[in-house]
Amino acid sequence: MAKQKLLVSLLLLLPSWPVCAWGERGAIPAESTAAQNETGAGGEATSPDLFGTPSVGFVFEPEAQALRPILGTPGAALFGSKVELGMNVRRAWVSPRQSFVVAEVEQSPEVLLLDLQQGAQTSKTLPTLSVGAERVAVSPTGTAMAFYFRNENRLQIVSELPASPEVGPGIDLADIPGLLSSLAVSDDGRAALVAVTDGGTGAVYLITSEQKRIIAQAGDVRAMTFLTNSLSAVIGDTTTNEVRLLDDVMGAAATQLLAEESRGISHPLALQVSVDNSRVFVLNSGAQAITTVDLTTGLLSHLPINGSASRLQRLGGDVFQLTDDFRQSTLLFDATSHEARIVFVPQAVSERSSARSASRDRVSDKRRPLPLR
């Protein structure tokens, strides 16, 4: 009899398990589901207890102007309720370490720094930094950010984030020809890389408070990133379909070819480096695949993407967001295990829908009316 009761219990639980990885089913911890469904009266979002629940990281949903946690673990995760920030956020950039957010807020001429470790209620302004940057680059660990203002052709670097932010003076880029195609900044904030292109030819410039100089010729560089806590960087050229390492950009900036078209590189749209600087991840938009380059052995591996990826944004550790259309399931690239994989997070449910679902779930099956035929 005890075995029969156990079997019935398992059968009742199985249908509620969400499908979160290709061909796999993952169990979501009970506390994660509770946090996702936590809403106030009328379906208003509340601030969930994020730090007692496993979390992949935070994403910003522009259309809803909402910051949401991805609760659970890669392959077994759900979107949580939006985090109540106490303000209407237009744009936001989450630190790769998921500890703070830099945001532009409605009716505010200043950029704000929001500390997520303090419940996202503590905020401070970044003085002399204007809103409206056309392009923003975040360093690998999030300790520095670079803001490019196209109308003024000006670059500003913010360093020492988040504890003691320093906003650097504006750097005039008017004497650099071509259109800016990519931007990167080092963790110490000492150096930024600006890639420009003009009709299929271009260059990568080193930008510091003391100098501006070309460190690499290129075609059309759409992706760049520094290595973690390093002054070496990786660039991806869509014209030549190459990924190159620039060693010590403040010095000789020696160039090393890491991968090329003959080895599967096709329109590299985004780049990231693993936390330990041992691997480079390349979003090959032309082949719809993620290519991993082992910096120690030089070996390449390719992982097909079953969908259209538009970004490679770090969520935490070596987990990255691939898509930003929240009307559909969100694709993630999980490189934390020995074998990298593509997983997904089911489509985020609106707050009011969550509230109705939570209320409905409290009604027993016996009392729930049958659907109309």
What structural keywords apply?
373 residues; mainly beta; 5-stranded antiparallel sheet; 4-stranded antiparallel sheet; disordered C terminus
Largest sheet: 5 strands, antiparallel
Helix content: under 10%
What is the chains' assembly state? single chain
Total strand segments: 28
Note the beta-strand portion: 35-45%
Write up this protein.
- With 373 residues, the chain is mainly beta.
- Among the domains are: 106 residues, no CATH class; 89 residues, Thrombin, subunit H (Beta Barrel), CATH 2.40.10.
- The protein is 8% helix and 42% strand.
- The chain contains three helices and 28 strands.
- Strands 8, 9, 10, 11 and 12 form a five-stranded antiparallel sheet that branches. The chain has a four-stranded antiparallel sheet with strand order 4-5-6-7, with no helix packed on it.
- The longest helix is centred in the first third of the chain and has 12 residues.
- It is globular, with a radius of gyration of 23 Å.
